[in-house]
Design a protein that fits this description.
Blueprint (H helix, E strand, L loop, with lengths): L2 H7 L15 H4 L2 H4 L4 H20 L5 E6 L5 E5 L16 H7 L23 H6 L1 E10 L2 E8 L2 E2 L4 E5 L4 E8 L11 H14 L4 E6 L7 E6 L4 H8 L11 E7 L2 E9 L6 E6 L2 E2 L5 H20 L12 H4 L3 E8 L5 E2 L5 E2 L2 H21 L1 H34 L20 E6 H11 L5 E6 L11 H5 L2 H10 L16 E5 L4 H17 L1 H5 L3 E4 L4 E5 L2 E5 L2 H10 L4 H7 L9 E6 L18 E8 L8 H9 L6 E3 L5 H12 L3 H11 L9
Parallel strand pairs: 1-8, 12-14, 17-18, 17-19, 19-20
Antiparallel strand pairs: 1-2, 2-7, 3-4, 3-7, 4-5, 4-6, 8-9, 10-11, 11-14, 12-13, 15-16, 20-25, 21-22, 21-24, 23-24
Length: 683
Amino acid sequence: MSKEEIKKGNAYGADQITVLEGLDPVRKRPGMYIGSTSAAGLHHLIWEVVDNSIDEAMAGYATQIDVALLSDGMVSVTDNGRGIPVEKHKVTGVSALETVLTKLHAGGKFGDGGYKVSGGLHGVGVSVVNALSEYLRAEIYRDGKIWEQEYKIGKPQKPIKAIGVSKATGTKIIFKPDATIFTELEFNWGKILDRLRQQSYLTKGITISIADERKGHRLKKYKFHFEGGIKSYIKSLHRNKTVKNETILYIDKDINGSKVEVALQYNDEYNETVMTFANNIHNPEGGTHLIGFKTALTRTLNNYGRNKNIIKEKQENLTGEDVREGLTAIISVKLPDPQFEGQTKGKLGNAEMKGYVEQIFGEAFNTFLEEHPKEGEAIVGKCILSSQARLAARSARATILRKGALEGMTLPGKLADCSSRHPEECELYIVEGDSAGGSAKQGRNRKFQAILPLRGKILNVERARLDKMLANNEIKNLVIAMGTNIDEQFDLEKLRYHRIIIMTDADVDGAHIRTLLLTLFFRHFTQLITSGHVYIAQPPLYQLKKGTTIRYAYSDKEKEKIILELGGGVEEAIEIGEENEDGENVEIEVPEEETKTGKKKGQAEDAKKVSKINIQRYKGLGEMNPDQLWETTMNPESRIVKQVTVEDAAKADQIFDMLMGDNVAPRKNFIQTHATKVKNLDI
C-alpha cells in the first residue's frame, strides 16, 4: 500500500461510517450472527473485536494488539490504530462510536475512505459483540483525548465523554458476554492462543500479546511477532519434518489493488497441507485463489521437469495429486471486495483472484526452480515417485472396485449389515475384535445398526502410501463397507451410513486402535470428519450393583458418586473401589442404619444387616453381554457418543505427524512431557 493511499485513508471520520440497518435481530437470533451460542460463538466475540484491530493493522495504522482475559469473565482488546471516530454522525445524530456499537452493518468497511482491505464477520462488526454482552466499555484514544462510553445489553448508559488527555491513538474494548445468551462462558486459553498466533503469521510485522489474568488461573503471558509472516508459518509447520527444499519459496506482490502472498516448501512425507486465507480469514474450502495456485503448481513442475529431462519423453505428465504429495503451502490474498460462498466464509469466490495467483505464483515458482536446481530436481523427483505410487494405487483400487462389481457389490463377509437402505438413519459400528463384534451383533438394533469387526490393529497410514493401504484387508473391508471410495475418488454422497462410530475397549490397545482409525479418517476420508459423520463410542468403565439395582459409571469420579448414592463412603469408595487382581468383582460392605426389627446400628451384632456393592471393572467390550452393550453403549436413547471435529487442520496435521510419523524424537518428548498427566493407565 502506497504512502499516498495511507495518507488518503487518514481521512477516517464520521463520514466514512455507513449505516445499513438496526441491531434488533441480534439478541433474538444470535446464532445467525455468530454461528452458535456455545463455546464457538463465545470465542467468536473475541475474534470479532480482534479482527477490527487486525483491519487497522492491514491498513497500515496499527502495529500492536493486546488481548487480556480478565476476572469475572471480562475480555479486553486494545490496539494502537487510529481509534474509532467519536464525532457526531450526520445520519444517526449520535457519535460515530455509538453508531458503530449499536447499528448492525455500520462501519468503515462499506463505503470509500475507511478501509481498502478488511476481514470481519459478514460486516456485522463489534455491534454484535455489544448486543450479546451484558456489559461493554469502549475507550477511544483520539484527537489528543481519551473518550469513554459504557453499554449494558447493547444500550448506551450515557453519552460519550472525554475522561482525560493523551497523545496516543487507538481503541480499547472491554466486554463481558451475556450469561443469558451463552451456554458456555469459560474461554479456552489454547484456542485463543492458536488463533492469535495464526493472525500474527498472516499480518507480517504486527505484535500481538495475550495475557490470562483470570482468578483461579495461573498468570500467563505470550507475545507473537513474526517478521517473516507466512514464511515463518511454514517453518513452524515443518518443525519436526525432513524437508526437500531447504529454501522456502516466498512471494509477496501487489497486483491491481490486491495483494498475493504465497509460501511453499516440500517435506519427505505423503500428505499435503495447503492453507488458504483471504483478508486473514481462513478459507477451509479453498476457492479461486486455491484453483489458481494448483493450476500454476502442476503446470510449472511439468514444464520444468520436461525442460530438464527429469520427466522422460515416454512418461506421463504429473497430475495435481502427484505434485501435492508432501507439499506444505500457504496462500494469503488481500483484496478490496471479497466475495465468499457460504455464511462461514469457507470459500473465496472472486474470479479475478484465480488469474492473479496463477500469474504471480507461476512466475515466481519457475524462477525459484531455475535458481535452485538441486532443490528443483529433488522436488520433481519426489513428484515422480508419487506418480509411480499413484499408478500402483490405481491398480489396487481398481481391484477392489472390480471385486465388488464381480461379486454383485458383495460387502465384506464380517460385516453384519442393517436392513434399512436410508443412509441418514443408518450407523456403522467399527468394533475391536470378534468377541466384541459378537456381542455387538447380538445386542444391536438390526434395522439401522451395522457392525464391522476389525481383526487386530490396522496399518498406520501415516507411514504408508495408498497402494500399501489398499493391500491391507481390514482397510479394504472398511472402504467397501462405507461405499465412498477413497482419496480423490471419494464421494460423500455414496456414504452408506451417516454415523460411523468407533467402538473400542477402554484400555491402551483400544486407544491405539482408535488413534489408527482416526489417522485413517483424517488423512484419507477428511470430508467424513468435516461433515460430522465420525463418532467415538463411550462404553462404561464400571458396573455397580447393589441388590437388584444396577448402575454404570463412565469415569472414576462418576463411580465414586454412584457409590455414595448407593450408600457407600467416600474414603471407602476410594480405598476399596480399586480392581482386584483380576480387575473385576470388587465388593464394598455398606452397613444399613436400621434392621428389620427397627433396632439401630450397633445395638445387636446378629441383627445388623449388611448389603454389598459389587463393582465390576470392564476391561473389554467382550465382557459385556449383548443386553448390557445395547443399554450402555448402543442405545441412542441412553448412550454417550463423542462427535469428532477438526477446529484447526494445521494443528491436527502436526499432532498426527508427531504421534504417528517416522520421527521418534518429537514423539518421545511429547510422552515425557505429558506422562505425569495420565491417570489409571491400564497396561
